[in-house]
Structure formats: structure tokens, C-alpha cells
Write a structure and sequence with these properties.
Shape: flat
Number of domains: 2
Radius of gyration: 32 Å
Helix content: 10-25%
Structural class: alpha/beta
Largest sheet: 9 strands, antiparallel
Number of helices: 2
Distance between the termini: 137 Å
Length: 397
């Protein structure tokens, strides 16, 4: 029998070519898909993460603004928190860039000047700083957010040429220009959450405000990065503040201007970041009366006694006794005795010419100063206690 062998050489064997070509094509499609995912989907998802952080950050900066103003007006420390940056979602195959960090920092120090128009040697000069949050986003283009003079705004001048106001100024309150000066240098960067300590100085240190002894209008010069149109628009219908001038200040940074205001009276509060402020001027300068040393007489208080039976956020100032039976989110200044009963809570400081009594269940979160004894009968005091102050008379009428 004749054998029919057909010899096939390895060189001519094409049986594995089709699967190999298919594998190469499939691998190529996967590489192209991965490149497309890395180039388009990953940046889009990271941009969404950055925008979510931006929205959260704006809310936290609004709370920070509120905390600065609260610390200044209530003389109580505040502890707002800020998430400086964010982290992208974890990926199994695709790659992320480094997490976008943010920077929260104060500006240089600029002077607030208060004068009565007579003698420049009597001018009161209080330093203040602005606060800037600068994001480090890679995918979205957003400028810095600034706080100054109670205004919170997004600065987009480098891109769109605009400044977007987030929270308007709140300088005028009950017929008074109420200024909160921000002091101390601060800078922190990263992606984590930080807590800011906003501190005030307790007591009645009024600096040299009593040097302003002339009756009439006061002139206040405020440093600002905002333009004249903003400030004039804020005060054009105010009976308390009159805008009289606006000048660039070339001796400072190029963006710093100075707005000049005429006011009937002004309160200057100081708040320090991380440490106590360098100046404590939290007292009212009333231009309608001759101003004298407030330390000699103490604050002017209402005559009589007060009993608080319902929750309130007012500051109590009487020359008699004060009894607290509910929650008071404010300070107490009394010429006589202060009693905090079992259902009472004082979220502020107590200054009393007489005794201070904290009964069981009562609580004081601030500091206590007393001309006599402080009797803690099972209550809680979070702050310091200064008792038996010789000749202490915190309240008069």
C-alpha cells in the first residue's frame, strides 16, 4: 500500500496566527480604552470631587466668618474647622495625580485708623489682617476666597476679572459701626481638617481710645481689597456711615486700598488666630458725648435686678442682682450678686461686684470675676475664677 504523507514545515504552519492576531487586536482595544478612560473619565471624576470640596469649603468659610464675628462681639473663644484639601477616589487600574492641597493664610498687617479730626497724635491705630483660602485644584480653575472687614468673597480677578460676594458686610449694627480686627500671623496647608482657635482678651483694656475727646463725627479709615463701588453701594442709604474717600495705598501691596468713613460712633473688637490678639479695644467710642477713660467707671448698666427664666442670647448688664434659671448665651455684668440655679447655664463670662453662686446642675462656660466669694455648690465652671478682687465694681449707672 502506498503511503500518502503530506509534509508540513514549521515555517509554513499558520494554525496559531489567527488567535494571535485576535489577541493583539483585543489588547490594542484595551489599551486604547484605558488611555481614553485615563484621559477623559478620570479628570472628569476628579473634577467632580474637587467641585464637591469647593462647595463644602464655601460653607465652612461662611461658618469661619461667623465665628470671627461672634468671637469679637461676644468675647468668647470660637473653634471653627476647615477641610483644607481633598482626596480623589481610590482607583484599581487608572492613576490619580497627587491630592489637591489647600492653603489658609493671613495677609500682611494693615492699620485701621480712627480719628476725631483734631490732632493726629490722638489717632487710634488698630492692626488688622485679611484671611485667604487658596485651593490647589488640578482640574477646575477657581480663585482664592477672602475674608476682610466682615465680607467674604471669591476673587476671580485673574480669570474673569470679577469678585463674587458670598457674604456681604455686616459692619453696621444698631447705629454703630462695629469693626472686628483680625490679628496674628497664620498659615497652614495640606489636605486634612484643621481647627482654628479664635481668641479674645478678657477685661476692659481700652488702649488709647479715651484720647479721642472731641465731640462730633469720627473718621475711620479701613484697609480693603474691594473696590469703591462695593463700599459706596453698601452705605449710600445709611444714616450711620458716610463714605467720604477712597484711595489706593501704594506703600502696601498693589491690591490694597483704603476706604474713608464718617460715623457717629464705632466699636472695635479684636480677635486673634491661635493666640490672643495683640490689642483689645472692644469698647464703644460715642462721638455724641465727651469720651473719657471707661476703666474708671465700668460699663453703664440698667438699674435694678434681673431674673432670666427663658432661654436668651442677650448680654445682661444691671447694677443689682442677676438670677439665671435657664440658658443665657451671653455675658453677665452685675453690680451685685449673680446666682446660677440648677437649670441655669451661662455660655459667657460673669463679672459681679458681689458673690457668684453656682448651684448643683448649673454651669458657666466662661470666666468669672467677683468682688466677693465664688461659691460653687456642685455646679460646673469651665473657665477661670478670679474672686475677692479688692474694690471690684464692674457695673455702674
Amino acid at each position: 500500500m502506498k503511503r500518502n504523507d503530506k509534509g508540513v514545515s514549521l515555517q509554513n504552519d499558520t494554525r496559531a496566527v489567527a488567535p494571535l492576531i485576535g489577541f493583539i487586536l483585543l489588547f490594542g482595544f484595551l489599551v486604547i480604552a484605558f488611555i481614553g478612560y485615563q484621559a477623559q473619565v478620570v479628570p472628569q471624576q476628579n473634577a467632580e470631587t474637587e467641585f464637591e470640596h469647593f462647595q463644602q469649603n464655601q460653607n465652612e468659610l461662611i461658618e469661619l466668618r461667623s465665628a470671627i464675628l461672634t468671637a469679637g462681639t461676644s468675647d468668647r473663644q470660637q473653634f471653627p474647622t476647615i477641610q483644607l484639601g481633598t482626596n480623589y477616589q481610590t482607583r484599581l487600574f487608572a492613576l490619580n495625580g497627587p491630592p489637591p492641597a489647600g492653603i489658609l493664610q493671613t495677609s500682611d498687617s494693615y492699620p485701621i485708623t480712627i480719628s476725631d479730626g483734631d490732632d493726629e497724635t490722638d489717632d487710634v491705630v488698630v492692626d488688622t489682617r485679611f484671611l485667604e483660602y487658596q485651593p490647589g485644584y488640578y482640574e477646575i480653575d477657581i480663585g482664592s476666597t477672602w475674608y476682610e472687614n466682615s465680607v467674604l468673597y471669591l476673587d476671580e480677578t485673574e480669570s474673569s476679572g470679577n469678585r463674587v460676594i458670598i457674604e456681604d458686610q455686616s459692619l453696621v449694627d444698631k447705629g454703630t459701626l462695629q469693626i472686628t480686627a483680625l490679628q496674628n500671623e497664620f498659615q497652614q496647608s495640606g489636605t486634612g481638617r484643621i481647627t482654628l482657635e479664635l481668641k479674645t482678651l478678657n477685661g476692659n483694656n481700652i488702649g488709647n481710645l479715651s484720647d479721642l475727646n472731641n465731640e462730633g463725627k469720627l473718621t475711620v479709615e479701613l484697609p480693603t481689597r474691594l473696590d469703591e463701588d462695593y463700599w459706596v453701594g453698601q452705605f449710600e442709604e445709611s444714616s450711620v456711615v458716610d463714605t467720604t474717600g477712597f484711595d489706593p495705598e501704594p506703600e502696601y501691596e498693589p491690591d490694597i486700598n483704603e476706604i474713608e468713613l464718617e460715623v457717629d460712633n464705632v466699636t472695635v473688637n479684636t480677635v486673634g488666630i491661635s493666640d490672643e490678639p495683640t490689642e483689645d479695644l472692644a469698647k464703644n467710642i460715642d462721638s455724641t458725648t465727651t469720651r473719657g477713660p471707661i476703666l474708671d467707671t465700668g460699663p453703664v448698666c440698667q438699674a435694678g435686678d434681673r431674673t432670666i427664666n427663658a432661654d436668651t442670647d442677650e448680654n445682661i448688664a444691671v447694677n443689682g442682682d442677676v438670677t439665671i434659671n435657664s440658658q443665657l448665651d451671653g455675658d453677665i455684668t452685675a453690680g451685685g450678686e449673680v446666682t446660677v440655679n440648677s437649670a441655669g447655664r451661662v455660655n459667657g463670662n460673669i463679672q459681679a461686684g458681689g458673690r457668684v453662686i453656682i448651684n448643683s446642675g448649673g454651669r458657666v462656660t466662661g470666666n468669672i470675676e467677683s468682688g466677693e466669694q465664688v461659691n460653687n455648690r456642685g455646679g460646673t465652671v469651665d473657665g477661670s475664677i478670679d474672686r475677692n478682687i479688692n474694690g471690684y465694681s464692674p457695673c455702674s449707672n
